[in-house]
Specification:
Blueprint lengths: L6 E5 L5 E5 L7 H28 L7 H18 L4 E2 L1 H8 L3 H10 L4 E4 L2 E5 L4
Antiparallel strand pairs: 1-2, 3-5, 4-5
Helix pairs in contact: 3-4
């Protein structure tokens, strides 16, 4: 459309069509023909816009179960990517707020993730 056409159809954010007069308004057969052409183009845009909106406006409902599965998958991925934070028994006891004897007991019982490096024991604080 040129700046001399009698109407310009614009679509605002809510999807409503609004007509605004612009430029010189001409009367007669020519302006009536251009109005009809403009109306035809507008109705074609409306039908196309409505079809596209119907396709994309209905989001699928997401259930709590699906969200929990996504959270578990992301948590597992983060744990795989996070490097272990290995500290000695004394440091682990300070971090956990328990005695060194309790840390060694939890290691022996398998309740505390750990690694053996030579003769020393290192506690993995990443999983705590």
């Amino acid at each position: 459309m040129s700046s001399r056409d009698p109407e310009v159809v614009r679509v605002d954010g809510a999807g409503e069509h609004q007509a605004r007069p612009t430029g010189d308004v001409r009367l007669g057969a020519t302006s009536a023909a251009s109005r009809r052409a403009s109306a035809r183009a507008s109705s074609q845009r409306t039908r196309t816009d409505d079809a596209a909106a119907a396709t994309f406006s209905a989001p699928r409902p997401v259930t709590l179960e699906v969200l929990n599965q996504r959270i578990e998958a992301l948590t597992a991925a983060v744990e795989r990517l996070t490097p272990p934070q290995l500290v000695g028994v004394a440091q682990a006891a300070v971090q956990l707020g328990v005695s060194e004897v309790t840390v060694r007991r939890r290691i022996r019982d398998g309740k505390l993730p750990h690694k053996r490096v030579g003769r020393s024991v290192r506690v993995d604080l990443r999983g705590l």
